[in-house]
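User: Here's a protein and a ligand (iron/sulfur cluster). What would the complex look like?
Assistant: Let me lay out the input and then the predicted complex.
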Amino acid sequence: MQRDCIYGRNSLTRRAALTGINFAVAETGEFVVCTNEGNADMGAHLADVHIACMGIEKLVPLKKHLGVFLRLLTRSATGQPITTYSSHFKKPRPGKEMHIVLVDNGRSVHLGRKEFRNSLKCIRCAACFNTCPVYRRSGGHSYHTAVAGPIGSILAPNLDREKYGDLPFASTLCGSCSNVCPVKIDIHEQLYKWRQVLVQSGHAPLAKKAAMKTMTWVLSNPSVYHGAGKMGRWFMLNAPFTVNNGMNPWYKQRDMPPVPKQSFGEWYKKNKK
Ligand code: SF4
């Protein structure tokens, strides 16, 4: 029975534990793993082999810098003064093994892109997630990538433009993310930049390209613009089912706003003195 019990002796003596690394210090050769639950510590201290995976951007030069980053991380993430467990590892325990895996996974390429390299400063506090009006309503899985939120939308297209080319467009560009970021990443500006790069490299979704071309034509021709407004209002008032149907993603979860009988331009013409 004890064999299957998650608290049994066997599960407390697992052979290998895999953890991440929040920061590594070049001066001392140590690395730090931060958790609030102690889960990483439990694994690392019970297993014979500790395998720690570190993104290559996690290195800070000196120990005195570590204190700054540890405080920034928790204050921006959960508002705590310090993470519950900030465990420092320097070498394996006697008779045990420790392996550090340095993960590049597109980071070097990202470093070579002048406009985007600043995003490698990210300490994954998630403050930009918490403030983002899109993330707050859509949640993590809608980003279909490991790192969600505004910063994920910058990092993911670097890995695969085809698969993640939609993410930089899923933003209001309100700038709240850049405002709260403790390491001052210009997040909304990079999202805007990604849009330009993706369109220029032909990775914008087809529907978006067609919609943008149509909008360019409508918005640059005043008579077409006024005509389209009139037509839209007529359909919404007289044949609302042409707009309020299952093909309209906005209508699926919301009521459409009431339609005015006239445009602001028409109202203004009538009422100006
Ligand atoms: S981009 Fe800034 S705010 Fe967002 S997770 Fe990274 S450090 Fe935190």
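Summary: The first strand starts at residue 16 and ends at 20.
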